[in-house]
Amino acid sequence: MKKVKTLLYLGLLLISTIGFSQSEHLFEKGKDHYKNQEYQKAINSWKDILQNDEVSAELYYNLGNAYYRLNQIGPSIYYYEKALQLAPNDADIKNNLAFAENARIDAIEPLPQSIFTTWYNNLTSILTFDGWAVVSVICAIGFAALFLLYYFSFTEKKKRLFFASSLLVAILLIGATTMAFLTYNDYNEDQPAIIFADELEVKSEPSLGSSSVFKLHEGTKVQIIAQDRDWVRIEIADGKDGWVPISELKQL
Prior knowledge:
Layout (H helix, E strand, L loop, with lengths): L1 H34 L3 H13 L5 H13 L3 H14 L4 H12 L12 H10 L4 H24 L3 H34 L2 E4 L3 E5 L8 E6 L3 E8 L2 E5 L5 E5 L3 E3 L1
């Protein structure tokens, strides 16, 4: 039985090693095509890696570059955004995304934010919901430890110190737990997508026969706020909303 398990582990290790080797080969092959200005061939090689469910910020970034070279703004922005999700602080990704966004037709002015919204956005950007959850657990352990130290302390001075410290950590615990729930809720409600159609009429209702309310063009980023069969209701940065066929955009 042990021999069978060992052989299974070795087989899985061999398969994963071969898969990694193939992906590395495809990635380098794509880079060679890109250097030779064969951008579509580069895209084909890199997309073969995606078919194996292997992703990375570098892979998405290179796909964005190749699509940008082909002047396909929608896919270019889409893959830069995908890269940014995996590496949110990467300066090169942000810079190239800005170049691609400048090539869009739509120039949408975002709604002004209140000072409280700005504070909230700055606060939630510090950590992900997983990060806030970790802070909550650490605070909970810290509170328990400080409360026990307070309870078993004999001197008045130490009791006051541990009690005050436990209260402070309890406040931090409540704050971190609240932020974990809020950021998790924001994460679930956040459904960004990129328009892939050259030009798209946004409808007042989820049907082709309904009236058009405004037009969007390739590369514009939208938020999906509802879905009705093959239609999605979208909202853009200036607050306008309407319905478009789900096939005309790609969700991030």
